[in-house]
Predict the 3D structure of the following.
Amino acid sequence: MMSSTKGLSLIIRGAALAAAIATTPVIAKECYAPDARSQERAFSRAVVTEGGKTVWLGGQTGSPNLDFEGQAREAFAELDKTIKAVGGSGVKDMVTMTVFIGDVRLGDRLTEIRKEIFKDCFPGSALITVSGFARPGILIEIQGMAVIGGK
């Protein structure tokens, strides 16, 4: 027979465990990048989510006095900050992005930066070359969508 003190202790431990599980963030996305091409170019063919909060991200640029890499990193840093500000974990919550660049020759450098930032679970992505941006000196703009939480 269990004493009431032991029973109460088990109930308290069980409640603490349930609370910890309930507050642990759940990964909201599953990346599908089955082929060499998607791995080489750092994008997913599909990203699957279930539940969660959808966050539409406005276009981000870097400072026009930076080079391409500096602007790309600054844009990703701003996206990361925005996602965290609305309750997410940062750019790892991104499920898709559209990247606009002014020079097609910079696409390979962008791919290397994305590999570094996203590791192996890449957002779906489109890379579009444009003839200009809203401000002189801008070389890249990134917009996207993130999903926070979910199953």
